[in-house]
Amino acid sequence: MLNGIPSLETKKLGLWYGHFQALRDISVAVPRNQIMAIIGPSGCGKSSLLRCFNRMNELILGSRVEGEVLFDGANIYAPGVDPSEIRYRIGMVFQKPNPFPKSVYDNVAFGPRVNGFAGNLDEIVERALVRAALWDEVKDQLRKSAMQLSGGQQQRLCIARALALEPEVILMDEPCSALDPVATLKIEDLMRSLVQDYTIVIVTHNMQQAARVSDMTAFLMMAEDRAGVLVEYGPTSQVFTTPKDSRTEDYITGRFG
After folding, report:
1. Is this model's pTM higher than 0.85 or not?
2. What is the pLDDT of residues 133-147, one digit of tens each?
3. Domains and CATH numbers, the chain
4. CB within 10 Å: which end of the chain, N or C, has fewer?
């Protein structure tokens, strides 16, 4: 943490889609330059929580948020805060690789171009691809269509596309669910490398992945009214070895979920 301030923090966060409450009373603090994993059964609100961190839920008609989401200590839902600016500083990588039907180069350069960057795009593209551990594989194929890359390469390209905007936080929504084990390992290694410079929040169904890559783990469940609630949050080593709640242990050991 910088001066004791978490990179991201939620305080009594609630989320509704119309009349349905998707999240209730979620309070977590994500330390700077650490990876937080969000785990839990399907439908418990993991992705909804992730999207609260960069106001993506606002793109869904009828959604509304109560409570606070703090980014570097400031509430991103406060009046006058530009959601576009928040999404610029808090990048997102989705479940399935979604490269644009453009060249490798144009995929990475897309964000800076849209935001009016007038400097050396070649440097930005190379730096982002190097950070995404993809440069050596594509440096001689920058004008090749991104659609011709393998699934794992496409996902790293999407990470490079996010990095090109120089975000401070990276959100990842099950980034390995569509990948084979070899590609998954590369993404996990990449996450551990990137966390030196970024704060990362990842949603995953893979317990082994959460245990391998994350520093902090949040376990969510559905309450009786189907709202997602936080059962336990703490250091990953503690949550996985000595969970404080029996429901956490039951989920991690595969007794339900």
Report:
1. yes
2. 999 999 999 999 999
3. 8-98+168-252 (3.40.50.300)
4. N
